[in-house]
């Protein structure tokens, strides 16, 4: 295998830098796609209101376009963008949480194929952080690692070693960080693989082959009761767990799972979408988890399931369903009038569920126990395909061209 390039910062990057933000704390962090993997937080805004008397703290125009979600590291909101014909110009921007002002911005030129569907963007995968490093991934399979000041640590053009890794619709699987490595899942009809890349050096820890079929699902990480961790890879043909230390397969299920919405963890369970929603209990050891239930009525279309406490929230078109995580039984379902097509996954804070459609209409749904109520509606005026982030009681929404903060 050819060695992947580590591109020198001065040759490819330009930066606007302001002194560093403090290291993240758990209460004010949302470190990856859907936060800790459950899409839930302890608190958030009760309503969303953009009027003069409302709770919109700030909005900032971003470079280019994005369909990725933001992440939050302490006092920093981080987002990716892409611009230009076919969007080969890539950006990572760090905004101040309190003001929305740009603290730093890095720009790069895509080394891989920037092609994507018009609905999507070259900035489709959500970045990830361990609280000290930030990793940004793009549809072109360019992988960037920065520190919290926005300084480039390393840059990998994965397309240089795997030139057939990509498709014309675009890549969208988001990376996840575990055990000092960033896990990327690059599955397509060409060079299809998953890899662990050392966070400090940018070198491969391991790489394994994956089914040669288009897949946009993101890897997940589960933690067993004894503290051991497993990387979960799902596709249209299998569900596999591997050891983050060496990529060794720990268990597998050879059955089709969803290729767009990803697995969600919470309350000791892993909920995996497919033609049904399958609940696996995360027990002791490293063996195949117990299948607790499977329910076809809870299979989502595009959006990932959210878990908060003992409830799972499933968005099926314009209907939101609350179900028991333990049994899969439906608790309530609420039709969401005025909601259009959705790609962004719902997120939950307390008893509030936040949902955005691709035209920028946002709803706040209150879970009242055995029923639900839409308590707030907002129109952002710009399309939203990336899931919101919640940190320190604030809700951050990346539309295609702007970032919004509500409190």
TrEMBL record:
Limits of the Pyrrolo-quinoline quinone repeat domain: 50-211, 237-406
InterPro entries reported in the protein's UniProt record: PQQ_b-propeller_rpt, PQQ_rpt_dom, Quinoprotein_ADH-like_sf, WD40/YVTN_repeat-like_dom_sf
Keywords: Signal
Keyword presence, Signal: yes
Organism: Rubripirellula amarantea
Pfam families: PQQ_2
Leader sequence residues: 1-25
Annotated protein name in UniProt: Outer membrane biogenesis protein BamB
Family matches, as SUPFAM superfamilies: Quinoprotein alcohol dehydrogenase-like
